[in-house]
Specification:
Rossmann fold, 12 helices, alpha/beta, 272 residues, 8-stranded mixed beta sheet, globular
């Protein structure tokens, strides 16, 4: 797996295929870039696909100081990785936490976007009860390590159908959650601190797609519909039988939605 030094941090990333614009995939919490393996298989024949381990996860650096983590920091690291790879404008697709980073990229580097996909995510800041739950998870990781939190998270991340009938997907998701405790703590803290990004949706000036699993209980379908309505010219892809990790639970329909976005991003004025 190649790595780059970006803003003083070591970033691991996956990089397959050729073509323009490249598709940059930003992973969910508490997973890593390898969650995108089905999309790399399907989409690399269509265009170049790059998937970083965000700082704190997988093979990338995981600083001990929670202040080293923010959605803005992740967005800037993605822009720095694009510089390192010689990529100018890219299609950015983020799922869940990766969606928060994608929205920060939209805020900070709008001129670099050729397209935007927001999957199983939400534009709003944490509600008080969500922030409180994250603080309890931080305390639990510091006290007991990551295992207990990972099992709790797993239950919410996957749809009911997946949990009941697809043990191999459950096992895959669990195997992708083995990042450093400091990374999980830093990311939870960064998500608590992230700003409301709702106003940014109206400024999207590129082809956009909102994706949601119809069994997603964390960022449910009504949140996705609200994002879709607020994002000019966006498409909405609802994925049957999938929960919050729709890219892993239903990789075929998810990849098809991204392939459509890449095709629209290649056309002049593709967002109208």
């Amino acid at each position: 797996m190649p790595e780059a030094r970006v803003g003083g941090a070591r970033l691991h990333y996956l990089d397959e295929g050729t073509g323009d614009p490249a598709l940059v995939l930003l992973h969910a919490f508490p997973l890593r870039a390898a969650m995108w393996a089905p999309q790399l298989d399907t989409l690399a024949p269509l265009t170049r696909v790059v998937a970083p381990d965000l700082v704190g996860f997988g093979g990338s650096d995981a600083p001990e100081d929670p202040a080293a983590y923010s959605v803005e920091g992740w967005a800037d690291q993605v822009a720095g990785l694009c510089d390192h790879l010689g990529l100018d404008r890219v299609v950015v697709a983020g799922l869940s936490m990766g969606g928060y980073a994608a929205l920060a990229f939209l805020r900070r580097h709008p001129h670099r976007l050729a397209g935007l996909a927001l999957a199983d995510t939400r534009p709003g800041a944490d509600a008080p009860e969500v922030a409180e739950r994250r603080r309890r998870q931080i305390d639990q990781i510091r006290r007991d390590g990551t295992q207990g939190v990972i099992e709790t998270l797993l239950a919410g991340l996957l749809g009911d159908h997946t949990r009941r009938h697809r043990p191999e997907v459950v096992a895959t998701a669990r195997s992708l959650m083995d990042s450093a405790p400091a990374g999980l703590v830093g990311a939870l803290d960064a998500m608590i601190r992230r700003p409301d990004a709702g106003a940014d949706l109206g400024r999207v000036a590129v082809p956009a797609t909102v994706v949601v699993g119809d069994q997603d209980t964390l960022s449910p379908i009504e949140v996705a519909r609200g994002m879709h309505e607020r994002t000019p010219g966006a498409h909405l892809a609802v994925i049957p039988g999938a929960g919050h990790l729709s890219s892993l639970e239903a990789p075929g329909p998810f990849s098809a939605a991204l392939a459509n976005l890449v095709a629209r991003s290649r056309r002049p004025g593709g967002h109208h």
